[in-house]
């Protein structure tokens, strides 16, 4: 959800109650922070299940953790500028894919089951390998206001969505067609799921 910052009470309830089986939801920057009558950091937990707090840092750039590097997130990302407000969440080390300069969790993942909040303690690395509860899904909190190809591929793999290429270009796939925008000369390897 790229712009779920300001939500009515009805929309908040709908998002919290309608967690579908196997769904992965990506929450960007300040989901649920703005109520119709106020701003409140508690709204982030209400919508996402992640307990959040404000951080006041000179940069919103984040660094991948060991868990994040296992997922293929290898380089720091995010604006090298102060962003206000900026939020971190409470997350266990195995749930944290990237941290701010103060060590707080900037990108975190957590399992959920249909209609419930966070569950289980399995790491995202174990989930990507298979054997997960098919009724479970994932919530991903991204506090820094930037999504990168590495992060999106990692989330897609976590959600068990086909990753057509490891190249850093936009991919459009629908109705039997795949289009990839190349950002550099040379070949791109494409996985369409079968020999062609």
The ordered H/E elements are: HEHEEHEEEHEHEE
Count of individual beta strands: 9
Would you tell me the structural class of the helices and strands?
Answer: alpha+beta
Biggest beta sheet attributes? 5 strands, mixed
The count of helical stretches stands at 5
Q: Uncertain regions: pLDDT < 50 for 5+ in a row? A: 115-122, 128-132
Tertiary shape? globular
For the largest sheet, list the strands in their spatial order: 1-7-6-5-3
Q: How would you characterize this protein structure?
A:
- The chain is an alpha+beta fold and 196 residues long.
- Helices cover 18% and strands 21% of the residues.
- It has 5 helices and 9 strands.
- The strands form 3 sheets. Strands 1-7-6-5-3 form a 5-stranded mixed β-sheet. A two-stranded antiparallel sheet has the order 2-4.
- Strand 8 (171-174) and strand 9 (177-180) form a beta hairpin.
- The chain is globular and about 55 Å long.
- 32% of the residues are buried.
